[in-house]
Each structure stands twice: as C-alpha cells, then as structure tokens.
Amino acid sequence: MSIKLHIKKGDTVYVNSGDSKGQQGKVLEVLVEKERAIVEGVNLVSKHTKPNAKSPQGGIVKQEAPIHLSNLQPLDPKSGKPTRVGRKKNSQGKTVRYAKKSGEEIK
C-alpha cells in the first residue's frame, strides 16, 4: 500500500512551523517511509566531519535535515502563497494535484 502524499520532489514549499518557520525552498528528496522531506536551505544542522578524501580539512559542515511533511505546504502556482492540496481527475482522466486556494493545477 502506497501512501498518497501532498508533496513531491521538485515542489516549492513553505515551512509553517518549527525553527525554520516562514522559509521557502525546493524539495530535494521525499522520504516516504518516514513521512519527511529534505528541503533546500531549510532546517540546517551542523554536522561534524572527520578529514576524508572529499573534505581533507574536515570540520563542521552545515547540511539539510529531514523535516516532517505536516510542517510543509506547497506554494500556489498563481499567487505564490501556501495552499492546501486537493486531487481531481483532469481531462485525460489522470489524477492531478491542485491548489485549493486558486484551483490551479500543481505541476
């Protein structure tokens, strides 16, 4: 059984709660099993790294941590404001996501 999620990779989302509240970013990855997403530039954590081939210096690296899907809302394609998501069939009979605020289809 697959869970239907309101967010996909590539969506631009708004963070509506937590430390990163008010920030916007692009979804880089959706972790379906954990119901979390990694959003570009949002929910940054400091990770301590040992020196290795990739970073010979080592040190502290800032990177994105997963954020729960309930704290994210897609942006309305028309107004650019956060919106809820609905599902409906389009003219070809394919199920598409649409913004509840404007009725616009979310690509």
Account of the protein in words:
With 107 residues, the chain is mainly β. The chain folds into two domains: 12-74, SH3 type barrels; 83-107, no CATH class. It has no helices and nine strands. It has strands spanning 12-15, 24-31, 36-39, 44-49, 59-64, 67-68, 72-74, 85-89, 95-99. The strands form three sheets. A five-stranded antiparallel sheet has the order 6-3-2-1-7, with no helix packed on it. Strands 4-5 form a two-stranded antiparallel sheet. It has a two-stranded antiparallel ribbon with strand order 8-9. The radius of gyration is 17 Å and the shape is elongated.
- Mean of pLDDT: 91
Briefly, what CATH class of the largest domain? Answer: Mainly Beta
CATH architecture of the largest domain: Roll
Number of helices: 0
Please give the domain count.
2
- Helix and strand pattern: EEEEEEEEE
Radius of gyration: 17 Å
The CATH topology label of the largest domain is SH3 type barrels
